[in-house]
Amino acid sequence: MANKVQQAFAEIHKLDVIHGDVRAANILVAEDESIWILDFEYAQVVFGSRGQVFTDEASEVRMLLDRIQRGEPYC
What we know:
alpha+beta, three-stranded antiparallel sheet, 5 strands, globular
């Protein structure tokens, strides 16, 4: 199970998103043992080769994550 959680966060990191609040309360294990990561309130998006972090508004990060979840372009 720990490996699945690690893989879930690795997928988020591939999208240049840092969750910012990793704890058991923010990880949901579904009946089919799929992993759902919850609560992106403290999430940050990292862009560029220097790893610049943009934290303008939490709502912008949430909108970006919603687009990613729907499979829409995010760049």
